[in-house]
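Deliverable D5.2: sample structural annotation.
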Amino acid sequence: MGKSNEKKQRDINAPSGKGISKTVFGVGVLFALLAGVFIGNLLTVGMLNRPRQTEGVAPEIQREIARWQKETQDKPRNVEAWNNLAFLYHDTHQHELAIRAYEESLKLAPGVPDILVDLGVMYRAVGQPQKAVSCFDQALQKNPAHQIGLLNKGVVLRYDLKDNQGAKAAWQALLRINPKAAMSDGTLVVDLVRQM
């Protein structure tokens, strides 16, 4: 039995016509690589053409997004179309796309406080708190009494940048405008300032 196994082993590795030649092996490897590249390209193209992050997005919202995408393509200088598209991306948590749409809107209508604040919120969502604060500051230069801008600036300064003094200053400015200002969960801003 041992001799028969030795013979099989030698036969497999032997350069005789019974083994795989280097040419056949090379052609097989080349074919496998080309097939891999082809399949990889198909998958990549499919991923790029697939709608992004739309799982769980209601079909009517997807249709609205498609409508405003088409509108921005057909009329790229339509600020309202860019804003509507940005709001839909914002609401469906497509943060990077929302940022691009808000930026296009601001190119056409620079300095709109509400758009700057929404853009700041999206920058926070993608982990860029400094850019978020910059957007809030720009909005507050245009409208120092922008309550949502002051609220969000305080949130980013306190929780993301660990700047309690900056957060306190933003929230105190907010409380001078609206003493009953509250976070989205109902927590009063005055209580947050007291805790600080």
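Annotation notes: The longest helix spans residues 22-49. Confidence is low (pLDDT under 50) at residues 3-21, 37-51.
The annotation will be released with the project's public dataset once the embargo ends.
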